[in-house]
Design goal:
Layout: H1 2-13, H2 28-40, H3 45-55, H4 65-73, H5 84-99, H6 107-112, H7 115-123, H8 138-151, H9 154-165, H10 167-170, H11 176-186, H12 192-212, H13 217-220, E1 224-228, E2 237-241, H14 279-292, E3 296-297, E4 311-312
Parallel strand pairs: 3-4
Antiparallel strand pairs: 1-2
Helix pairs in contact: 2-3, 4-5, 5-12, 7-12, 8-9, 8-12, 11-12
Amino acid sequence: MKSILEINEFLKHFNYNSYNREQIGYDKKNILTIYEFLKKLNIPEELIVSLINNIAYFKVRDLNIPLFLEILSRSISFLNLYDLSELIKVVKEVHDVYYDNARQIPLEEYLHDTEETRLEKLFLDRNNKYLIKVFNNEQYINELKFASALALDNKEYKEFLSYIDDFISVKDYYSPLVVFKTYSKLRNHLKDLSKLFWDIYYGNEYLVAFNKHGLKLTDIYDKDSIITNPTKENPEPVQLDIFTYQDYGENEIKLPEEYKLFQISSLYDSINLPEANTEKDLLAYYNNFLNSREVINLPKLKSQTSSSYIFEIN
């Protein structure tokens, strides 16, 4: 009953007449469906309203709604660091990288698909290959190149940027797992919206790669990461929710525990990645990790006691 009342209250205050036929906000069915999608994620009502008010101004012809919602829903926690308008802008820009070659999935179909199926349909082609990407923002590209020049050697630099400069020519060699590892070396040389853009893009590609290979990020980056209490001689595992973030002041948003969708920002809390430098070796590492189920320690709170192997992930 509460959900119905909240929907009715939202609809009562949403002014469809403020939008023209070319805009998302003109279509009552789409707006209601987007509202229900965000509501099911347990996003706070005030934030839902703000998100929809921003999304409603996009033109229908420019937005693949399922693609946009998928990227947005995994980027919400970046609101700890960026304003809502900035996040919406950059999510749309990441969406545009995929837009030309992503499948157009009916919104209702997207809502009823599993998480794994959504990733497969949106970010892989019908032959299960990675989508061809289109990069148009010269500022972001130039800043990425500058950061790469600072952090990478010549061979890494050329290989890493080849996937930006001419993706079609090198797509057969593309490994998001390897590329993400390279990106982690240079991302701290980026700043502002450029950093947000590439964080979302490379994080999303990493997630897609896991899904493509039948792995789940939540099996490695556990949403309830195990930490140990250094004050105890024989520490017991303690659960720490993945959405417990440090205080970022007025911009802070705390997602509820019921928000189960893995957040891209969580990837960048990791201080170490496997030493392997090929996709084959990385996949072997992750599969071995899943089979052995080693303890995951948070780097900032890890115990002073040692274990046979610790993969440090926050």
